[in-house]
């Protein structure tokens, strides 16, 4: 497994864990909104 694939795996898993944590806190809608804004700007 290359370093790029490994880094991508860790990034995706961290993002997923962040979504789970936000869902537990009840702030998932804010997280999704911020991600959408980021995609439009960059």
How are the elements arranged and paired?
Layout: H1 3-25, H2 28-41
Q: How would you describe this protein?
A:
The model has no long low-confidence stretch (mean pLDDT 93). This protein has 42 residues and is mostly helical. The protein has one domain. The chain is flat and about 35 Å long. It contains two helices and no strands. The longest helix is centred in the middle third of the chain and has 23 residues.
Structure summary:
The protein contains 2 helices and no strands. The chain is mainly α and 42 residues long. The termini are far apart.
Number of helices: 2
Averaged pLDDT: 93
What class do helices, strands and sheet pairing give? Answer: mainly alpha
Low-confidence stretches: none
- The SSE order reads HH
SS elements, strand count: 0
Strand content: under 5%
* Relative helix content: over 70%
Keywords:
2 helices, mainly alpha, single chain, 42 residues
């Amino acid at each position: 497994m290359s370093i790029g694939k490994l880094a991508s795996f860790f990034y995706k898993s961290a993002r997923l864990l962040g979504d789970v944590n936000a869902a537990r806190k009840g702030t998932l809608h804010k997280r999704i909104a911020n991600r959408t804004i980021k995609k439009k700007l960059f």
